[in-house]
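Pipeline run #58 for the internal structure catalog. This entry was flagged by the ingest filter as a single-chain record with no existing model, so it goes straight to prediction. Upstream metadata was stripped on purpose; only the residue string is passed forward. Reviewer on rotation: M.T. Logging verbosity set to normal.
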Amino acid sequence: MRIGVITFPGSLDDRDAQRAVRLAGADPVALWHGDHDLHGVDALILPGGFSYGDYLRCGAIAAHSPIMAEVIDAANAGMPVLGICNGFQMLTEAHLLAGGLIRNEAGTFVCRDQVLKVENASTAWTNSFETGADITIPLKNGEGGFIADADTIARLEGEGRVVFRYQGVNPNGSINDIAGISNERGNVVGLMPHPEHAVEEGFGPDTALAMRSGVDGLGLFTSAIRAFATA
């Protein structure tokens, strides 16, 4: 399986996402924001960072990059698409996911290992997990507060499209502790925490077993492989 990782001006975690794809057992393909070619990939990742310097709203300029026309078409055709942090912001700005992300409630940048509850284990990016499981992956954002109008929140909750929910503490003031959501079809997922930073022992969050041994984030990438294998 070939998973494309798109680099935008200001992307920081594109190489980390490529490494996560490789560790999960797929082939990462580097894609460029200015192109109109997805190079035949089977899934896509929009990585974290500060695309275009966050000079407008986070992700707003990137959502109009040339390659996003292909991303939107691919997502609408059913291709698995994952947006991580800034990538999540792009997906909301491109209207592939509902709602939006605003400045953290405390007004400060937050960086911490964050416990998440897996609310939906049936999407293309979560099928390696069990519904209700707690996972720990790093979080780092300044504008991660998820918002939407009341009708949209009710629809997301009622349709099971809240994929991850913050546990223990809500780090950014997101409505209903929402950390990640999906589209109706379940092939497009966005989340604020960074699973690509919890895929290799020695570099992930601390666990009860050992320091930096957490690899809970790997499940998102193996899920895409499983979804492709069973499609």
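catalog note: The mean pLDDT is 97.
catalog note: The radius of gyration is 16 Å.
status: ready for reviewer M.T.
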